[in-house]
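hey so u asked for the seq, here:
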Amino acid sequence: MAFTLVVDTTYTHNPHPKVVMSRKSVYSGKDNVFMGVVDTWNISGVLLSINGALPTQITNLKNAYDSVTKIELKDGTTVRETIDVTGMDAIIKTTTLDFPEGFGPEYITKRAFSITLETTTYIPSGYPIATSTVNNYTISYTTGQNGKIIRVVSGTCTDEVDRDATAEYAAFKTAQGWANAPAGYNRGSDSYTANQENSEVSYSITDTEYFIAFPANITSGSLSVDERLDDSGNTLTTKTGWYEGSGANCIIAIDAIREAGAAAVLLNESISRDDFSSRTNFTLEYLMAASTDEIDRKNTYTISTPYTSIIFKRVLGGGSPVRQATSVGTARATQSGQAVKVGSYPTESASEWPLTIMSQNVTRHPPVKTRSGTGYLYRTSWDYSFESASAFPWPD
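ran it, structure tokens below
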């Protein structure tokens, strides 16, 4: 999904800016009584000349933030974060709206801006406060180099009264909807640290928008798929990677990515487990061939070319010897090769020079069971020899 930042349903930032949200508690200065919370949004981005005249865009930006009642950070049609004071006795203050840069391409091709919004929500007088916990946190949305959104939630949960900050944080995390990654995101990291008195917890949660979701019950993982052609033109597919989770869940996830059907033969499989890191590594290598496909056939030819035998005879009475041709040797050739087929033995190749064949040897080798256990690879090899009074032509 694409993120959009919408102000009062009428103004949409383009391009999408960086947004950092934070919340802190407010206490009375007299007796340190909790009074409410302050939400702050820091927005920074650029206006681009390709979207229209920069002076007009600057005016529209200022008008949008002149009086704000609602601002939404949306992921497609889903509202991820919002401040909405519609109908409330509260306002959203634009505390800063600056254009901090004024050099280089500024004013010509782009205009950088920085905006800070702030709103305070007070607890009504006499309203019972059911908890002694104070939560201050920051939410940051940024775009990675791959174009995917990264959400980072970090903050502190303080409980000076009950000193049960870890339990309070767990409940607060669930109430805020942070217990699991949002739809369309993978959970990258989720950690917290409590002090010795358990009066304060510091936490950090990172979620990254995914291209592909992790399998069920897998906390992290990596999958690479490599396809290449072997010497016979067959497609070899290799899947390598790792999953983190329980051993049983990792095996289920690995089984889910196996090549299915009769068009894949598992040649090699390697699975290893590290229980200390809860990581299972795997490699699966497949030959992409159907259950009746011939996957290899090669022939090798050797030709021995005959030459005329020459003798030299002495001449009676002396003189130089006379060169004389006596006979032409026998032309010989061999043909050897092999073929491999899935499911049954392949037939041997036909002899290249059948009228001059002298011997023929055909061997059927023991079948090799594939790692998938559902089929065998069968190999047939052959060796022919030929003799002729004339030279053999090379096969086409």
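The CA atoms of residues 89 and 121 lie 9 Å apart. The mean pLDDT is 86.
lmk if thats what u needed
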